[in-house]
Design a protein that fits this description.
The protein is mainly alpha-helical. The chain is 59% helix and 0% strand. The longest helix is centred in the middle third of the chain and has 21 residues. The N and C termini lie far apart (76 Å).
Length: 63
């Protein structure tokens, strides 16, 4: 059976590749990502925190 003229195969569940968010929502998403990463780091022994502190100390010593 043929399709009716002008009909198209559409996927209504298609997710857009890019999204537009207001600045406040972008900051909220970014803050949540950072918080999730900190929690994950604390659960695995704090390796990331030690690296950040060491790099900060090295920068302070070099100035």
């Amino acid at each position: 059976m043929a399709r009716t003229k002008g009909s198209k195969n559409k996927n209504s569940a298609e997710v857009p590749m890019y999204t537009s968010l207001p600045t406040e929502e972008k900051l909220f998403v970014l803050a949540n990502l950072i918080i999730d990463r900190i929690i994950e780091d604390q659960q695995t022994g704090g390796k990331l925190l030690r690296q950040v502190v060491e790099q900060g100390d090295a920068r302070l010593r070099s100035t």
